Structure formats: C-alpha cells, structure tokens
C-alpha cells in the first residue's frame, strides 16, 4: 500500500509541472551551451513537460517491463534525434509532430491503451525523435553542446520518473486519476495546437 503522503506529493508535483508556462522552448531560443541550460530546457515548455509525464504515466499504467523500457526508449531515441539535429540532418514536420505527441500520448494514457511493450517503444521512439531533433538543432557545435544534451536527457528522465511515480503511487485503486491526468495532457496538446495555451 502506497502512503497517502506519497500520493499527495506525486499529484502535487504533476500539477506544479503542468502549470509551467510555455516558453517557446524550441529552435533558436535560449542558451544551449551548458548542462544547466539543457536541464532547464525541457522544463521550460508545456509541450515538453506534458509529453514526458505522459510517457511515465503510460508506462506505469502498463507496468512490467514498460516501466523501464518506454522511458529508456524515449531518452535514447531523443538523444539520437538530437544528434541528427546537431548534424543539421533535416527532419520534416518537427513542431507539428511534437504537438501531436502531446495529444497522442495523453490519449494513450486517458484511454489506458494496452499495447505490447515493443509497440509502445515504437510509438514513443517516433515521438522522441522529433523532440530530440528540436533540441539538437539548437546545440552549439562544441564540447559544451554535449553538456547541453546530457542536461536535457537528465531532465527528461526526471519528468518520466514523475509520471511513473504518480502512476504507481495512485495504483490500481486510483487508476482513474492517472487516466484523468492523461486526458489533461491531451487537452493541453489541443490547446497548444490551436494556440490557446
């Protein structure tokens, strides 16, 4: 049994992170030459925060191997996408795909879609490629860029952990709250698509 304080803390963390204001966190904005800048980057945009937490929530709802496999897949493919961006390899539809990821991942949680772990890895990996590319095209082309990549990978993993902790903390008895958080993520995505958030 998960203590009530842990459940309240997890829910509070989700609400605080979801309340983060968008900061135009993509291409060409802000410093990209340190671990700290990379760490702060995923925390500065509502699209990043909601998508990362949704990955963690979905992994927690699935349980088993997905709890590690899905977040690891996201971080790994995101770093590969970041590498493509640093090399200036063009990837089409980056911004629309990022917005679609917020809606889609939120819906996967809200509907508690139960897919095989490998299918989840494929879906999450596809979205991670676009998120990583958006980060990578911003990175300065020197050693400080590697610190930036490490920072945004670490922040992303922490956001996944928030989602996992909240999902597992709510447990089967409160599964509806996790699904409601997924619906909120999808709603945020729709709001971003239509420019109201």
Please write out the topology.
Layout: H1 4-18, H2 35-40, H3 46-62, H4 66-86, H5 94-110, H6 117-136, H7 143-170, H8 175-193
Helix pairs in contact: 1-7, 3-4, 3-5, 3-7, 3-8, 4-6, 4-7, 5-6, 5-8
Characterize the quaternary organization of these chains: single chain
Helix tally equals: 8
Sketch the major β-sheet: none
Helix content: over 70%
Low-pLDDT segments: 9-29
Task: Name the helix and strand elements from N-terminus to C-terminus, one letter apiece.
Answer: HHHHHHHH
**Binned strand content:** under 5%
Describe this structure in words.
With about 200 residues, this protein is mainly alpha-helical. It has helices at about 5-20, 35-40, 45-60, 65-85, 95-110, 115-135, 145-170, 175-195. The model is unreliable at about 10-30 (pLDDT under 50). The chain has one domain (about 30-195). The longest helix is centred in the C-terminal third of the chain and has 28 residues, at about 145-170. The protein is built from eight helices and no strands.
